[in-house]
Specification:
Layout lengths: L1 E10 L2 E4 L7 E5 L2 E5 L8 E7 L7 E6 L3 E4 L8 E9 L7 E4 L2 E5 L4 E5 L3 E4 L5 H13 L3 E3 L3 E6 L8 E7 L7 E3 L4 E3 L13 H10 L7 H9 L40 E2 L2 E2 L17 E7 L7 E4 L16 E3 L8 E2 L3 E2 L1
Parallel strand pairs: 20-23
Antiparallel strand pairs: 1-2, 1-8, 3-4, 4-7, 5-6, 5-8, 9-12, 10-11, 12-24, 13-14, 14-15, 16-17, 18-19, 20-21, 21-22
Length: about 350
């Protein structure tokens, strides 16, 4: 990934770019700052950061593939400083949902907390096909070793786990839909768009590192799941088999994974679903497979938090505030992951 930085300084309708891209315009409309720009090289995405200080305190406020941005309601007597990162080489294989800075509901009983920065989270859990794409790239780069039973790679270490080689993917599990032929990775036919399972926390971390991404904290995960609604489930306070994949929920894949985004309101071969995204548009935040997060279970525990429940659990595990954990070396048929980026 290549990142270029453009510095903007704005005071209502005054604008300066530090490295002089062309065709810069700025205007004010209904108390909004409207900034547009062009750049000599193409970019996949521009990310906008803002501060009231010249060289510090920048907070990411949004991202856009377009070469303009509207800062709503922020043209006033404050001096704002902006910078924009223009990124090329951003993967187009993942769909993202924008999570705005601000308050959100956390825990049970619910409390209002705040995440004061913008970020994006994957709209869907990482699929078998996406994980195989990563494995092929990692193998070619010499980052992993593979046998018929396991994929292993290097982890840099943390306060509970020393640096060294760990299992990334348990190929030996009967429910793993990824196989190794001795020369290439294959996927059981029909499971390409199902969430990748049997991936350990280390394997999830390695995927994220490979693409310049991160695993979400459980706070970032819960905000993406329920915003500031106080909902028990991402869509509301009741649940049934048309909304999520849980144990004996009645979907055509019982009991096992469903394709990502399956609960989108469509009728799938006679099975009618109800569109069930989170308030931010994120799917499968309840059921299908657990999501690994970046948190330890406690200050003294080496286990990592998982969120969201799975096809192997009842509805009590689907609750937005529910917490569970597993040892990061575990790779099971009911656990997967999704990533975030700033």
């Amino acid at each position: 990934m290549k990142r270029l930085i453009l510095l903007l300084i704005v005071f209502c309708t005054q604008l300066v770019f530090s490295n002089s891209p062309t065709d810069i315009t700025i205007s004010e409309s209904d108390n909004n700052i409207i900034i547009s720009w062009s750049y000599s090289t193409s970019a996949d995405m521009y990310y906008i950061y803002r501060s009231t200080y010249t060289y510090s305190g920048f907070v990411r406020i949004n991202g856009t593939p377009a070469t303009f941005y509207i800062d709503i309601g922020d043209c006033n007597e404050i001096m704002y400083y902006y910078y924009v990162t223009a990124e090329t080489g951003v993967s187009n294989d993942f769909e993202w949902c924008d999570i705005s800075a601000g308050d959100y509901t956390y825990g049970n009983p619910p409390q209002t907390l705040n995440i004061d920065y913008y970020y994006q989270i994957m709209k869907y859990q990482v699929t078998n096909q996406q994980y195989v794409d990563y494995l092929e790239e990692a193998l070619n780069a010499g980052d992993i070793t593979v046998t018929t039973s396991t994929v292993q790679g290097y982890y840099t270490g943390d306060e509970h786990w020393s640096a060294g080689n760990y299992e990334f993917l348990d190929l030996d599990d009967n429910n793993c839909r990824i196989d190794w032929t001795g020369s290439e990775f294959t996927i059981v036919s029909g499971y390409e768009d199902h969430p990748a399972t049997d991936v350990t926390w280390f394997g999830s971390w390695a995927f994220a590192e490979h693409y310049g991404l991160s695993l979400p904290t459980e706070q970032e995960w819960e905000k993406a799941a329920r915003e500031n609604t106080g909902y028990t489930y991402p869509w509301g306070n009741t649940i049934d088999g048309s909304r999520a994949n849980y144990y004996n929920s009645g979907d055509p894949f019982d009991n096992g994974t469903t394709p990502i985004g399956y609960y989108n309101g469509e009728n799938h071969s006679g099975f009618q679903t109800t569109d069930s995204p989170s308030p931010f548009g994120v799917y499968d935040m309840a059921g299908n497979v657990w999501d690994w997060t970046n948190n330890f279970w406690s200050d003294t525990s080496p286990d990592r938090v998982i969120r969201g429940g799975s096809w192997l659990n009842g509805t009590s595990s689907m609750r937005t505030w529910g917490r569970n954990y597993n040892v990061p070396t575990f790779g099971g048929s009911h656990t997967g992951f999704r990533c975030i980026r700033p």
